[in-house]
């Protein structure tokens, strides 16, 4: 597998962080969440090439929040039930007033 390098991912994924201080090998879970929610297909391919699908799934299970589309995407591809993902159980504890 390849090494995680910021240059291989879209610039818009790092819009709110200082890229000079970001170490992707220490922040793999954060990167998985960003690629799932905001990444392009090229970012997904690069992440899959770099980490491998089993690790992506395990990292996604650790995320505290993930939008519904991204959660359904990773749950469907992995074959895991949505309840196996932390973001799903956390979301159930905090219901919204309105669902738009």
Notable traits:
single chain, 100 residues, mainly alpha, globular
Q: What does the model show?
A:
This protein is an all-alpha fold and 100 residues long. The chain contains five helices and no strands.
First and last CA, distance: 41 Å
What is the overall pLDDT average? 88
Q: What helical percentage do the residues reach? A: 40-55%
The largest pleated sheet is described as:
none
Instruction: Give the low-confidence spans.
Output: none
- Looking at how many chains there are and whether they match, the oligomeric state comes to single chain
The best one-word shape is globular
Count of alpha/pi helices: 5
Helices and strands, in order, run as: HHHHH
Strand content: under 5%
Topology, number of strands: 0
> Pairing-aware structural class of the strands and helices?
mainly alpha
Radius of gyration: 14 Å
Brief sketch in words of this structure:
The protein is mostly helical and 100 residues long. It is 51% helix and 0% strand. The protein has five helices and no strands.
Break the fold down into its secondary structure elements and pairings.
Elements: H1 28-38, H2 41-51, H3 53-62, H4 68-78, H5 86-93
Helix pairs in contact: 1-3, 2-3
């Amino acid at each position: 597998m390849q090494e995680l390098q910021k240059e291989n991912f879209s610039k818009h994924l790092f819009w709110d962080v200082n890229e000079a201080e970001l170490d992707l090998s220490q922040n793999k879970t954060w990167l998985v969440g960003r690629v799932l929610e905001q990444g392009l297909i090229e970012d997904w391919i690069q992440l899959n090439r770099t980490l491998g699908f089993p690790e992506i799934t395990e990292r996604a299970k650790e995320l505290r929040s993930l939008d519904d589309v991204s959660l359904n995407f990773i749950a469907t591809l992995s074959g895991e039930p949505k309840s196996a993902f932390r973001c799903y159980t956390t979301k159930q504890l905090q219901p919204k007033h309105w669902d738009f």
